[in-house]
Design brief:
Blueprint lengths: L2 H5 L15 H9 L3 H8 L5 H6 L1 H23 L12 H5 L12 E3 L11 E3 L3 H12 L3 E6 L17 E7 L2 E9 L11 H16 L5 E4 L9
Parallel strand pairs: 5-6
Antiparallel strand pairs: 1-2, 3-4, 4-5
């Protein structure tokens, strides 16, 4: 062991009865933190015996936890500035979508007379999304909705984020524009992956910065929109 490595060793691991993996180097590579910071983290926890019992599982989980906290710190400190960039409305009408029809297909046929969306079919990724589209078609309070295409992204420090839906909802003669950011079976913040949840929070800050009245919601069903 070099003098530098000795400087950053973790004392409670030095008395292990067998050779352990180099957890400091592993976490340094997985998190991009300095060795000094990683040692500081490891010396502050009280469960290093778990590392001795199952080194690989411990290192993998430790990297996930550290990166989740890193992402949260990044999002907490993010600040968006309004620019003149925007998506041209024509992009929605010129995009080619491929819909598979039938009971096992990936699409929902819309009522063209109602004109609630820009396409003849709403192409979806799951049964939850298909039910969401069917419900939006039936709900008289939904004046317009669109399944946001993959190219509609929000820049975040963690990579591009693509919300699921946009809806114009009217109730008591008042209209609200909603971005439905996740349409999943379980959309609680506890069940979303930390990386995914951090992108959602970045998206919310993005639209706050450009002074819109867009509201963000996480929904499993369209009928929960007014809940």
């Amino acid at each position: 062991m070099s003098d530098e490595d000795a400087k950053y060793s973790v004392g409670s691991l030095d008395d292990a009865p067998y050779q352990l993996p180099d957890i400091i180097t592993f976490l340094q590579n997985e998190t991009n933190l300095t060795r000094k910071t990683i040692v500081g983290i490891l010396t502050s926890v009280d469960n290093l015996d778990m590392f001795k019992n199952n080194p690989l599982a411990y290192m993998t989980q430790a990297a996930k936890i550290i990166n989740a906290h890193k992402n949260q710190l990044i999002v907490d400190g993010i600040k968006y500035t309004k620019t003149d960039e925007y998506y041209d409305q024509s992009l929605f009408s010129t995009e080619t979508l491929y819909a598979y029809l039938g009971p096992n297909g990936n699409s929902v046929k819309v009522d063209e007379e109602k004109g609630k969306t820009v396409y003849d079919y709403v192409v979806t990724d799951s049964e939850v999304e298909r039910e969401f589209a069917r419900s939006a078609e039936k709900d008289e309070n939904v004046k317009f909705y669109v399944k946001l295409p993959d190219w509609f992204t929000i820049r975040t420090p963690l990579g591009p984020y693509n919300p699921d839906w946009a809806l114009l909802y009217e109730e008591d003669d008042k209209q609200e524009l909603y971005f439905v950011v996740e349409t999943k079976g379980d959309i609680s913040s506890e069940q979303l992956r930390p990386h995914e949840y951090a992108k959602i929070k970045s998206g919310e800050k993005h639209f706050q910065a450009i002074s819109t009245d867009i509201k963000f919601r996480r929904l499993s069903r369209e009928s929960d929109l007014d809940a």
